[in-house]
């Protein structure tokens, strides 16, 4: 479904549309990219306030040192993790025991990309990782007053 169709269906404001809809660069296809572990299912919430954008990403069991947050190409927020969550094999190490159900996915090679809106202050990006939740905060630039433009009138 195209970005225009999604915007029309859900009535996204332009700012939100830029945050959650596809980055139009070849080879990426959408705003999140995964390699290996099906990480497009990792939930993320994006909150816009009057002063900042806040991204909440659930990635439990990953070491803080295995997470990277960068801003690339001036307006693309990139969240990466090459860390792997270790499965607790405490009870399975006993002979004759085995898992009979495995539903919790182990994150592998997480890469998520988000195009930031024009009012995002890319020099004011902070990240905090606590209790399995990565919180990335991107400040907003103060609104710029519209600049009047003088138009020259041509005489024909």
UniProtKB/TrEMBL annotation:
Gene3D superfamilies: 2.60.40.790
A family per Pfam: HSP20
PROSITE patterns linked: SHSP (PS01031)
InterPro entries named among the record's database cross-references: A-crystallin/Hsp20_dom (IPR002068), HSP20-like_chaperone (IPR008978), Small_HSP (IPR031107)
Transmembrane segments: none
Keywords, alphabetical: Stress response
Residues annotated as domain SHSP: 35-156
UniProt record similarity statement: Belongs to the small heat shock protein (HSP20) family.
Full protein name: 17.4 kDa class III heat shock protein
């Amino acid at each position: 479904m195209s970005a225009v169709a999604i915007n029309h269906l859900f009535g996204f404001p332009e700012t939100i549309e830029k945050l959650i809809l596809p980055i139009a660069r070849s080879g990426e296809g959408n705003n999140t990219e995964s390699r290996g572990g099906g990480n497009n299912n990792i939930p993320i919430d994006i909150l816009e306030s009057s002063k900042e954008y806040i991204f909440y990403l659930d990635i439990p069991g990953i070491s803080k040192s295995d997470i990277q947050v960068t801003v690339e190409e001036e307006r693309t927020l990139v969240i990466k993790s090459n860390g792997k969550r270790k499965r607790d094999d405490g009870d399975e190490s006993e002979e004759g025991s085995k898992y009979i159900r495995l539903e919790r996915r182990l994150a592998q090679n997480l890469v998520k990309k988000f195009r930031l809106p024009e009012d995002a202050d890319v020099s004011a990006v902070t990240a905090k990782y606590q209790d399995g939740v990565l919180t990335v905060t991107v400040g907003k630039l103060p609104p710029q007053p519209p600049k009047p433009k003088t138009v020259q009138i041509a005489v024909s």
